[in-house]
Amino acid sequence: RYRLYSTDTITTEAGLHTLAVYHDRTGSSIRDVIRVQESCIASEIFGSQGCDCQLQVAHAKEYIAKHGGILIYLNQEGRGLGPSIPGHRYEAVRDILKSLEVKSVRVMTNNPHKEETIKKLGVKVNGTVPCVVEAKSEEMKKHLAKKADCGHKF
After folding, report:
1. What is the value of pTM for the model shown?
2. How far apart are CA 70 and CA 72, in angstroms?
3. Mean pLDDT of 74-96
4. Average pLDDT, the chain
């Protein structure tokens, strides 16, 4: 079953609300995998074939439905590089995890910068879970190559 958790602990350029959705298959409090997803107008609104954001969130939802976990949706434009973008804030991730009494996590990401940023906020990170998706177009292949050049792991 899915549960919804919402908070307004962070002000971003896009708005005040950050959203966390988690799937608790066992009824227990163990939800150690988190996916921090940032909004992506290109894929979510315009259906861009050159961006992997929509594929990554679909992969994360499938993983979380099967294994449990938390999807935290930050209302700030990601554009593929995550915490390396000036002005990106991740305090809401820390606050949501604290509110849900999650003591440590594995971060579903290909971006080592995102993992490090979350650690610097005081969240105990026990590693990562890859979020690898298949490129659906030549444009997306170029986008993934650009992300790899920025240090993303695939």
Report:
1. 0.75
2. 6
3. 69
4. 75
Contact 111, 152 (CB under 8 A): yes
Q: How many residues does the chain have?
A: 154
pLDDT, one tens digit per residue, over 134-143 is 766 666 566 5
How far apart (Å, rounded) are the C-alpha atoms in residues 139 and 137? 5
Q: Which tokens hold the place of 125?
A: 């990170």
> CA–CA distance from 116 to each of 10, 23, 80, 107, 127 (Å)?
19, 25, 16, 10, 10
Q: Strands (DSSP E) along the chain, which ranges?
A: 2-7, 18-23, 33-39, 69-77, 104-108, 124-129
* Distance, C-alpha 38 to centroid of its chain: 6
